Amino acid sequence: MGRSRTVAGVAGVRERILAAATELFAEQGYAATSVQQVVDRAGVTKGGLYHYFGAKEDLLIEMYRAVFGERLAALDRIVGQGRDPEWTLRAIIDDIVVGTAAMIKESAAVSRELAAMDNERTQRLQADWRRYQETVRGLIRDAQEAGVFAAVASPEIVSWSIFGVTNSLHTWYRPDGPKPAAAIAEELADLVLTGLRA
Amino acid sequence: MGRSRTVAGVAGVRERILAAATELFAEQGYAATSVQQVVDRAGVTKGGLYHYFGAKEDLLIEMYRAVFGERLAALDRIVGQGRDPEWTLRAIIDDIVVGTAAMIKESAAVSRELAAMDNERTQRLQADWRRYQETVRGLIRDAQEAGVFAAVASPEIVSWSIFGVTNSLHTWYRPDGPKPAAAIAEELADLVLTGLRA
DNA sequence: CTGTCAATACCGACCGGTTGGTATGTTGTC
DNA sequence: GACAACATACCAACCGGTCGGTATTGACAG
């Protein structure tokens, strides 16, 4: 008889584990979630989890990669087009807001635990994130020096007013809410770019 | 012999415990910090901690109150003056940025753990925070309807671009850094209010 | 088409260590 | 000698992680 689950299961076991971990980390935080809770929600056992993942931390790292990997690739595509600062900044805001909203649970889990993760495994990922921010700040700085953007606020403040929204997006954005992510992105871009109008 | 610490200690034991907990929670997060770590850093034992606090959670609640209590009182004072929206919003931004910066460690601990705390003890505090946000949004909405502020972005987005900065302030603000909190507040207010200029 | 065999997928009992919390001192002060 | 202010010793529960085992699968041989 047996079970032949590999074919019959609704989704791959690995994916179920990751999905369960994502929900729980987003709800309770990483440290407050036990491996037992994860496997219970995923419908597997600890043996199964440790068959696919080397450690509990690997689950977080995987989410981290999912969130930042796509965003970083999109950033390079947008900047690579070489268009004017206003278009570029608007495209970046749109991508990060819509992209974050599309992975809102992963973002919630990651953004909360980001500061606490300070071992060598995550330094590469944090360096990626820093590069993202530096790119945006550099873009704003260059445009301000060229007189395209007004120097009403420093590049640091402008970039943080953007990232601050995406970092806290999970506390108020609802996928089934009245305002779609694209609308949020547009309003934020309008607000920031009006403020920066030379 | 004995120790007669009550008088000789550099600071009250209760304050030392709270300060140690604040630092550790800000660095590692609440759940990842053990009571043993707190008492070690504070230079006391667990018996001492549980003499002053009923539970580990009480430490977080105390920080929560310290952060939001002052802010909420200041909000009422500012709004109570009945001045024009531009002055009022600028005063609010200045107070929340400078106030958050002044308690940056407490803010880091609280802002990270806020979403995960969902028991009945914290609902009152979360209600206070929601009232704060609602006040700011209402202020913006009224001013936009009166034509004083431009409707370039909805009150929700504007308020979140402000709170997003303060929520993530702990990730980049340094008390001994080159930019004082008051300057950050002014730039943020300039950016937002320029965007809202009718 | 069937038998063999190694690899993969997964289970569930178990491990040493740590957790938040407590019960019981001990000590100085009024 | 009552009481606040702590220290010390200790507990049951739970933690992340391991391990020996088993069911299932796929490749290959004949």
Automatic annotation (TrEMBL), chains A, B:
This is HTH tetR-type domain-containing protein. One of its GO terms (biological process) is negative regulation of DNA-templated transcription. Residues 11-71 form the HTH tetR-type domain. It comes from Catellatospora bangladeshensis. InterPro entries: DNA-bd_HTH_TetR-type_CS, Homeodomain-like_sf, HTH-type_TetR-like_transc_reg, HTH_TetR, KstR2_TetR_C, Tet_transcr_reg_TetR-rel_C_sf. Keywords: DNA-binding, Repressor, Transcription, Transcription regulation. It comes from the Bacteria. The keyword Nucleus does not apply. GO terms for molecular function: DNA-binding transcription factor activity; transcription cis-regulatory region binding. The keyword Repeat does not apply. Residues 34-53 bind DNA.
